[in-house]
Amino acid sequence: MSEKQTEISQLGEFGLIDRLTEGLKAVHEGTAKGVGDDCAILHYNDVDILVTTDMLLENVHFDLTYVPLKHLGYKSAIVNFSDIYAMGGTPKQITVSLGVSSRFTVEYMTELYAGIRIACEEYGVDIVGGDTCASRQGLVISITCIGEAPKGQAVQRSGAHDTDLICVSGDLGAAYMGLQLLEREKVASAGQPDFVPDFAGKEYLVERQLKPEARRDIIKALAENGIRPTSMIDISDGLSSELMHICKESNCGCRIYEDRIPIDYQTAVMAEELNMNLVTAALNGGEDYELLFTVPLTDHDKVEKLEGVKMIGYITKPELGEAMITRDGSEFPLKAQGWNPLAAPQSDKKDKE
Amino acid sequence: MSEKQTEISQLGEFGLIDRLTEGLKAVHEGTAKGVGDDCAILHYNDVDILVTTDMLLENVHFDLTYVPLKHLGYKSAIVNFSDIYAMGGTPKQITVSLGVSSRFTVEYMTELYAGIRIACEEYGVDIVGGDTCASRQGLVISITCIGEAPKGQAVQRSGAHDTDLICVSGDLGAAYMGLQLLEREKVASAGQPDFVPDFAGKEYLVERQLKPEARRDIIKALAENGIRPTSMIDISDGLSSELMHICKESNCGCRIYEDRIPIDYQTAVMAEELNMNLVTAALNGGEDYELLFTVPLTDHDKVEKLEGVKMIGYITKPELGEAMITRDGSEFPLKAQGWNPLAAPQSDKKDKE
Q1: Cβ contact (<8 Å) for B97 and A142?
Q2: Would you say A240 and A336 are in contact if contact means Cβ atoms under 8 Å apart?
Q3: Interior angle at CA B247, CA B51 and CA A126, nearest 5
Q4: Structural element, H or E, at residue B53
Q5: How far, in Å, CA of A259 to CA of A312, rounded?
Q6: Residue A269 distance to chain B (closest CA, Å)
Q7: What contacts 24+ positions apart, CB below 8 Å, involve B8-11?
Q8: A128 to each of A97, B38, B263, how far by Cα in Å?
Q9: pLDDT tens over chain A, length 353 residues
Q10: Count of CB contacts below 8 A, A vs B?
């Protein structure tokens, strides 16, 4: 090609995806929702089928120095389940494709697969196929998950309205702090074969990074309490980035309150220790796999009773933009820093379409 | 891990998959067929959904020295469509996951994606999602295809019976010879910027390697002529390997006739030129994406009238094993050499679960 060449970093991941999928039109009536949500939605007679896919590459998404293979397998499956739950669906089947370099033995691959199998047993999902091939470089994991939602009930990113309440499950920033901790211990252990990493008092952070869970319980609680979110997304790239996806797809703005963002005690201690801004970590730290959703204002009292869910703000008209109201009452515009290795090559994390 | 370690090459790809998926049980009633065919089959009320996935890694499955990105995109999609057709289904949607290293520009990725889009337009398939992330090494392409078959009509590998006729579409070995040719010209061109590769009289071979098609036309012809194969598979790893999959899954043996194996004139010329055994190339050369299927003996006359389909042998009782009857009438046992980079690290091709 002789024409002008554009670095991918100039567009970033989302820009690249927009460029690649520009003007795509579905030919099948059943293709209800294509690119641009946690999952694709395929209409069948009495059910909507959800499809999501996630690729994990060694030394981009995981570092085998400190990530046990079984945990990696577990997490690889969970991140896909999370996307299905984020549409209000139920994950049913996965396919597992693995690119394996010759330095991996059968026993290592069995460990990895054991983690995938445990996640599937835990969440009631069937492994139905895949592809296994040699890789010249590192380990490649590509999982596709198929789920179901009752006809017309899949919750998209595009349904938020002015005055809707913004809710988030669990707490944020812990997975990111877990990663910082693991990286710190990796550096500290360099060249010391007998090194014992010190995770005392920070077990929660390590677990959030290495063995995240998908919030099936929240989806169940919402259904039991008759709450149907107007929009929903899972937090894989950070609260800011996900909130901006909802605002973009729903054509609205938002206000969230700094003092309402749920943060665990260990996350705060770790941020202090590392001299990092805690709110930045909570806003932009990825991989929490919590659910971010909006509900009509009239659901306020119902949501208030939900355990593990916090209302952090509200949806506005689009012209008001997206902002956080800080503790001192000023407005801080949200930015989708997220984890964008295509835009920022030095970063070690990932974005998801 | 301190236990005994086993090299993956000792098991090969299929052995590894058997080990990893040992004892897998489906929890969902809808999961009708999991690992072990071209596609998984998921039962829905009035339709069977087919799912297949394929991973392509740079320098394992393709060499960008001579594979144009647009062709690569096209082929990446086609190999998935082929798996759906091999179940007698219709491909409907794909997800496209890409791992991209920083040496690729937006324009390069657009070329690749253009090839995928052209294949999708050609075959009436919707792109419904994917994942795009940074790769530290080469290009990674992982595509999952979703298709449909009428309820209970998906053709599996397991339905062949004693006396069934073995049929194959198109011709075999050409894609493999195309690869040999491209590799030869690559070597010849080394260090010569003005080198013009010589493909005169061998255009068919290059096209078979770089721009294969999926045999939708054969599926259509079978339906129009009221022929329902008892078993079917697409030839991605070579005739021998695929035939042995059918025999294993159907618990039967087979006899094929050397002189019935369809081979194009250009393939024969190229084998001669390279001093390669032509029949070995046709038996073990992969990537032809032709259909291999069995039909009841009573369909003989119907199949005989089909254009582009050749009967090459018959299914036997399992105790007779799998063999080719050579031109001189002797029996030559079939071996699944296929392309197994996990068993033979020096090979440049791939196997598919």
Answers
A1: yes
A2: yes
A3: 30
A4: strand B47-57
A5: 8
A6: 32
A7: B8/A100, B8/A102, B8/A104, B8/A105, B8/A106, B8/A109, B8/B342, B9/A102, B9/B342, B9/B343, B9/B344, B9/B345, B10/A106, B11/A106, B11/B342, B11/B343
A8: 11, 11, 35
A9: 556 888 888 888 888 888 888 888 888 888 877 787 889 999 887 889 999 999 999 999 999 999 999 999 999 999 999 999 999 999 999 999 999 988 889 999 999 999 999 999 999 999 999 989 889 879 999 999 999 999 989 999 999 999 999 999 999 999 999 999 999 999 988 888 888 888 889 999 999 999 999 999 999 999 999 999 999 999 999 999 999 999 999 999 999 999 999 999 999 999 999 999 999 999 999 999 999 999 999 999 999 999 999 999 999 999 999 999 999 999 999 987 644 445 443 333 333 33
A10: 296
Q: Are A88 and A77 in contact (CB under 8 A)?
A: no
| Chain A residues with CB-CB distance to B33 below 8 A | 128
Task: Name the β-bridge partners of A167.
Answer: A293, A311
Phi, psi of B233, deg, nearest 5: -160, 155
φ, ψ at B254 (rounded to 5°): -160, 160
The number of C-alpha atoms within 13 Å of B252 and in the hemisphere containing its C-beta is 23
pTM of the model: 0.91
The rounded distance, in Å, linking the Cα atoms of B295 and A310 is: 61
- CA-nearest residue to B40 within chain A is A128
Closest C-alpha to A163, from A93, A45, A41, A255 = A255
- B144's enclosing H/E stretch is strand B140-150
Q: How many CA atoms lie within 13 A of B26 on its CB side?
A: 18
Residue type (1 letter), B159: G
Assign B346 to helix, strand or coil. Answer: coil
Give me A230's structure tokens. 């107007």
